[in-house]
Amino acid sequence: MQWRTVVKAMASVKAAVQGSSQEGADPTAHIEVPTLWLVLGLVPLTIFMIILQFAAFKINVALGLLSVVMSFFLALVACRATGETDITPIGAMGKITQLTYAVLAPSNITTNLMAASVTANIASSSADLLTDLKSGYLLGANARKQFIAQFIGVFFGCMAIVPAWYLMVPDKAALDKFNPPAANMWRAVAEALSNGIHYVPETARTGMVIAALLGIGLTIVEACAPPRVKKFLPSSMGLGLSWVVVFANSLSFFIGAVLALIWSMVNTRNASTYTIPVASGAVAGESLMCAIIAMITAAGALGNH
Which of 23, 28, 182, 222 is most exposed by smallest CB count within 10 Å? Predict the structure, then answer.
C-alpha cells in the first residue's frame, strides 16, 4: 500500500550513486545524512553479514543474503509499528523469518534461530534509531552529527558489551542459569518448526491464517475508507501488538487511553499540553524503579524474591 514511498527511496539511492542528488538546492542538505552514505554502508555491511553467518553458523550464502533482504522490509514494518504505538515488535519480526526458514531450511534449528536474529536486530535497531532521530529533530539537533555520534558509539559499545558478555556467560551452563524467557520462546518455535509446520497445533495454524487475513483486511479498508469511517477503525498494528506484548502492558495502554480521553473531555487545552509529559514521566519512573529494585536485589538486600 506504500509502494510509492519505496520507489521514492530507491530513486534517491540511485540519484546518490550517480551523483545527481540536488543537495545544493536543499537548504537542510548540510545537516541531513546523505543518501550516498546508505549505499556506501549497506553494501559492505551486507557482505560482512553474509560472511559472518556462513563462518559462525554455516548458513549458506543465498539464505544469508535473504535474511538481510527480508530485514529491509521488516524494518519498515517495525518502524511503522514504533511510530504508531511506541512499541517495536522485535519478536514478531523474528517469527516471520523463522516461518520463512522453516520452509527453506527445514530441520535446521541453527539457521532458523540465527537468521531470525539478524532480522529482529536490524528491525529493532532501525526503529530505535528512528526514535532517536525524532527526539533529536524535536530538540533541534543536527541529524548528520547525531548519526556520526551513533556510528562511533557502535564500536565503543562492542568493545564494552562483548567482553562483558563473555564474563557473565562463559559457557552454556552459565547461560542456562539465566533462563531467558524470550530466548526460550524463540528456541521453542525453532524446535517446533524444525519438525515441519504440521507440528504446530492446528488451532495455532488456524489462528495465524485468521490474523493474517484480518491484518490485511484492516489495512486495505483503512486505505480505502473515507475519513469519517477511518476514525472508528481499529489499528491493525495496535491489534497485532496486543497479541504479542504481555497482558499487563495492553491493560496499561487501555487504562492510560481512557484516562487521557476523560482528561481531554474535562479540559481539552490542559490535556493536550500535559498528557504526553505525564505519561512519559510515568513510564520513565516505572523503568527507573525497576532498575533500582533489580540493583538492590542483585546486591542481596531484598533476597531472591
Answer: 28
CA 149 vs. chain centroid, Å, equals 21
pLDDT at site 5: 60
Say how far apart CA 50 and CA 270 lie, in whole Å: 53
Q: Answer for the pair 95, 134: CB distance below 8 angstroms, yes or no.
A: no
Burial annotation 26-57 (CB, 10 A radius, 16+ → b, else e): eeeeeeeebbbeeeeeeeeebeebbeebeeee
Strands (E), 39-146: none
pLDDT greater than 90 at residue 50: yes
Question: Residue 291 — pLDDT band, cuts 50, 70, 90?
Answer: confident
Tell me: pLDDT of 281 over 80: yes
Those residues with Cβ within 8 angstroms of residue 144's Cβ, 6 or more apart along the chain or in another chain: 30, 31, 32, 33, 34
- HSE of 210, CA atoms in CB hemisphere, 13 A: 7
Report whether 85 contacts 238 (CB < 8 A): yes
**Is pTM, for the whole model, over 0.70?**
no
> At 29, which helix (H) or strand (E)?
none
Reduce the DSSP state of residue 155 to 3 states and report it. helix
Q: Give the containing element (helix H, strand E) for 51.
A: helix 35-57
Confidence of residue 2 (pLDDT cuts 50, 70, 90): low
The answer to whether the CB of 123 falls within 8 A of the CB of 90 is yes
Exposure pattern of 165-197 as b/e (b: 16+ CB <10 Å)? eeeeeeeeeeeeeeeeeeeeebeebbebbbeee
List the grid coordinates of 92. 514478531
